[in-house]
C-alpha cells in the first residue's frame, strides 16, 4: 500500500526521483517496472506493473460505449523502469497532458500513485476542502 504525499521536482529531462521509501517495495513487487497514464482529473497515474496489468484488464473489458475512456487510459499508457538511482522518465506528452513542468506532488493512493502539478493540486485540494463532504462520509467516524 502506497500512501503519503511527497513534493517532487522533475529534472530538466522530465525525470522524477521516486522517494526512497517506495523504491524497495517497487523493486520487490514490480522489479522497478512501472506504467504511467492519464487520470481523468488532470493528473497522471503511476502503477507498479502488476497493478497496471489488473487495471488494464478491467479497462479493456469495458463495453464499446467506453471506447474513448479506453483510449485515454490505454492509448496514453507508457511503460517505464526505475533507473539505478531510482528515477523514472515521464514522457513529454504525459507531462504536457497533466500540466507538469517541474514542481509536482506525488501521492500514494494505495495500489498506485498520482502525480500532480503542484499548483494544480494545491488549488484543487483547497476547492475540495471548501465544499461539502460527499454523502458517503455521513456515517463515517473520524
What is this entry, summarized?
This protein is an alpha+beta fold and 142 residues long.
Task: Please tell me about this protein's structure.
By secondary structure, the protein is of the alpha+beta class. It has one domain (2-117): Transcriptional regulator MraZ domain (Chemotaxis protein chec, 3-Layer(aba) Sandwich), CATH 3.40.1550.20. The chain has five helices and eight strands, in the order ββαββααββαββα. The strands form two sheets. A six-stranded antiparallel sheet has the order 1-7-8-4-3-5. Strands 2-6 form a two-stranded antiparallel ribbon. The chain is globular, with a radius of gyration of 16 Å.
* The level-1 CATH class: Alpha Beta
**Mean pLDDT, nearest integer?**
95
* Terminal Cα span: 21 Å
Helix content: 25-40%
CATH superfamily: Transcriptional regulator MraZ domain
Look up the CATH topology: Chemotaxis protein chec
The total count of strands amounts to 8
User: What's the helix count?
Assistant: 5
**H/E element order:** EEHEEHHEEHEEH
Low-confidence stretches: none
CATH architectural name: 3-Layer(aba) Sandwich
Radius of gyration: 16 Å
What is the structural class? Answer: alpha+beta
Global outline: globular
Strand order of the largest sheet: 1-7-8-4-3-5
| Share in β-strands | 25-35%
Let me know the largest β-sheet: 6 strands, antiparallel
Number of individual domains: 1
Amino acid at each position: 500500500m502506497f500512501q503519503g504525499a511527497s513534493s517532487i521536482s522533475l529534472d530538466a529531462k522530465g525525470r522524477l526521483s521516486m522517494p526512497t521509501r517506495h523504491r524497495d517495495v517497487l523493486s520487490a513487487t514490480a522489479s522497478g517496472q512501472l506504467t504511467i497514464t492519464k487520470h481523468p482529473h488532470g493528473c497522471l497515474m503511476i502503477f507498479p506493473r502488476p497493478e497496471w496489468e489488473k487495471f488494464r484488464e478491467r479497462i479493456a473489458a469495458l463495453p464499446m460505449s467506453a471506447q474513448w475512456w479506453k483510449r485515454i487510459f490505454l492509448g496514453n499508457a507508457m511503460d517505464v523502469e526505475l533507473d539505478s538511482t531510482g528515477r523514472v522518465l515521464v514522457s513529454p506528452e504525459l507531462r504536457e497532458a497533466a500540466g507538469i513542468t517541474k514542481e509536482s506532488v506525488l501521492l500514494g493512493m494505495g495500489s498506485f500513485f498520482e502525480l500532480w502539478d503542484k499548483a494544480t493540486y494545491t488549488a484543487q485540494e483547497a476547492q475540495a476542502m471548501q465544499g461539502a463532504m460527499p454523502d458517503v462520509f455521513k456515517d463515517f467516524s473520524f
